[in-house]
Every structure is written in structure tokens, then in C-alpha cells.
Amino acid sequence: MRVLGVDPGLTRCGVGVVEGVPGRPCTLVAYYVIYTDPADDLALRLLHLDRSLNDLVAEHRPRSVAVERVFSQHNVRTVMGTAQASAVAVLAGARAGLPVRTYTPSEVKAAITGSGQADKAQITSMVTRLLRLDEPPRPADAADALALAICHIWRGGTRSKLEAAASKHRGGAR
Amino acid sequence: MRVLGVDPGLTRCGVGVVEGVPGRPCTLVAYYVIYTDPADDLALRLLHLDRSLNDLVAEHRPRSVAVERVFSQHNVRTVMGTAQASAVAVLAGARAGLPVRTYTPSEVKAAITGSGQADKAQITSMVTRLLRLDEPPRPADAADALALAICHIWRGGTRSKLEAAASKHRGGAR
After folding, report:
1. Domain range spanning residue A75?
2. If B153 and its partner were Cys, which of A76, A141, B20, B112 is the partner (CB 3.0–4.6 Å)?
3. What residues of B are in contact with residue A102 (Cβ under 8 Å)?
4. pTM reported for the whole predicted model
5. A4 CB within 8 Å of a chain B CB
6. Residue A86 is part of a domain; what is its CATH number?
7. Sheet arrangement for strand B12-19
């Protein structure tokens, strides 16, 4: 299963593509950071982000997209841009007909490190180990996007197994 | 000049299409409210909004799009959805190759009523008079979207005249 994870941001948007199955080590496919210029018009920035994400979805053909869920409790100065970038990311997946899941930062941290309180350095270090990389992915936005993709593979896997079991059960009951 | 105004919201998104030139009464073309179900998945809601806005842009072929600028000072419970809906609206214009302008609520209120402090009832009442409608547009989201479109025609007009004067001046100086 190939998953495209997005750590949304208007100035820096992390994208990570990971291949894997639940309970097994995942493999890095690629990671990117999409930059937009804060001096540019909002329309231009959203358009650049939209086109870049559409291109990456078309290039890597993931089975699903995972996006970090944004909370209004976040940094108030940047939260509006983050919310707008997350909308563009969710749309990029939905328009391609892909299932899109959102995860809170705590869900991702717990899935990757075992603790919902992990800091950025711990996330980067675990992502580097889990994907058996020689170097940590930089910048941190890319590591966060890869963490989202890994979280989705592992959790989606659990859900898929449950769904398979449930549908088998339903099938048996017919 | 035909303008499509958007009062962004995830549950209710107002859209108003107005035709006019600066300093003259404007004419109503159409108004809509796009609803999405809060019980639905975020991806489905953004996709429905995206498709509806793209359809309205294609149907009415406006010369430009005006979207209300969202502030994080707004209602914290709804601000994330509003920011995401505004991103979809700005993108719908940008993807169609149209100029997109954002206006703060105070700018719109000042342009329509002469006061940046006007309330929703005053906006609705002025929009009804300015467009010479028999009935006030309902719900208020539609009136706000029409107010945005009128604001853009009047202010854009001022800018166009300045630009025309500037380019005439540049032409004369050659």
C-alpha cells in the first residue's frame, strides 16, 4: 500500500510518500517540501500548492492520502494559512478519487514513537530508523509528512483487517 | 463587469453574482448558498464545495472573484472550516485564471454602508436597496456575498481608473 502524507503549511508544506503493509517495516518512496513565497498573493500561493500536490499525486499514484488535522489552538499567526493549505491537500486527494484521512498530531506521535507527547526531534529520529535511512529527512516538515504516511499505513492496516473480518462475518451470516 | 462574490463557510457558503460599473447602480445576476453536511467527511464537504463553486464560475463567467478575508479572531469553533472554505473559493477563481481579491469584513461594510461597524441587518438592507430588489436576499450569507461583489465592483473600478490613468500617463511619457 502506497500512502502520500501531507504536513500542511502555506509557506512550507511537507509531502512524504511511503510504501508498506501493517506491522512490517515501511519503505521510503520520496519526500518533498513545497514552498510558497509569503510576499505573493494568496491566490498564487494556493494555486502553486494545488498544482504541486496534484502533480505529486499523479506521479506517485498513492492508494490513499493522509493529512495532519489542524486545530485552532495552534499558533494563531499561522493557523489560517495552515488551515487553507490543509484544505488544498484534502482536495487534491479527494479530486483524484482517493480516500483521505486526517490525523491529529498526537495520533501520529503515538503511532510512531509510542508517546503522544513526542517532540519533533524524536519524530525525525524514529522516522529515520523506521524507514532505515542513512540521514534524517530534512527539513522537519518532510519528516512529519513521512510520519503521517507511516501512521496511516499502520492504522489503516488495522482498520482494513477489522473491515475484512467484519465483511467476512457479514458474508458468513447471509 | 461581472463579479462573483463568496462569503466562505463550510456549512453554509454564500455566493453572489453581480454586474455593474463603478459609481453606477449594480444589477443582481444570481445568488446561492452552498450547503455541506457537518456529519459528512471533510474530504466530501470540500469536494462538494469545490465542484459547486467551479460550476458557478463556469456558468456565470465572472471577470473576477471577491472572497471575504478570514481572521483568526473570528469564532474559534468555526474559524478552521471558514479558512478551509475560503481556500477552496480562492482556488476556484485562480484555477479559472481569474483575478481573485480578498476583502476584510470592515472593508465590505464601509464600501456598502459607509460604516465599517455596520451589522448584518444593515448590510442586508443596503444590498436590497443597491440592487433594487423587492425582497431582501436570504439567508444572510447570500446578502454578504452580494455585498462583497458590489464592494469589488466599486473599489476595483477606482483601481481600474487609476490604472488607466497611470498607463495613459506612461503612454504619453514615451
Report:
1. 2-172
2. B20
3. 42
4. 0.87
5. no
6. 3.30.420.10
7. B27-35, B12-19, B2-7, B64-68, B100-103
